């Protein structure tokens, strides 16, 4: 695996981690604007898309949900 390939994999992992990590401020804004469910729909769709892209770029068995640090 090339250095660039590994960096792309690492970047994808961090992006997925950021999507899974709860953000109370953003979710609070979504509640205030009455679009929390729609926010979660978008989040789920983006995660699904990134899973597909991970499989395309890194192989069929490449997607593993990130292992989160205990702070989450």
Question: How is this structure best described in words?
Answer:
The protein has 72 residues and is an all-alpha fold. It has a domain at 21-60. The chain is built from 3 helices and no strands. The protein has helices at 3-20, 24-32, 36-58. Helix 1 runs antiparallel to helix 3 (36-58). The protein starts with a helix and ends in a 14-residue tail after the last helix.
Give a short summary of the structure.
The protein is mainly alpha-helical and 72 residues long. Helix content is 69%, strand content 0%.
Helix and strand arrangement:
Layout lengths: L2 H18 L3 H9 L3 H23 L14
**Rounded radius of gyration (Å):** 14 Å
> Roughly what percent helix?
55-70%
Low-confidence runs (pLDDT<50, min 5 residues)? none
Q: How many strands appear in the DSSP assignment?
A: 0
What summary fits the major beta sheet? Answer: none
Structural class: mainly alpha
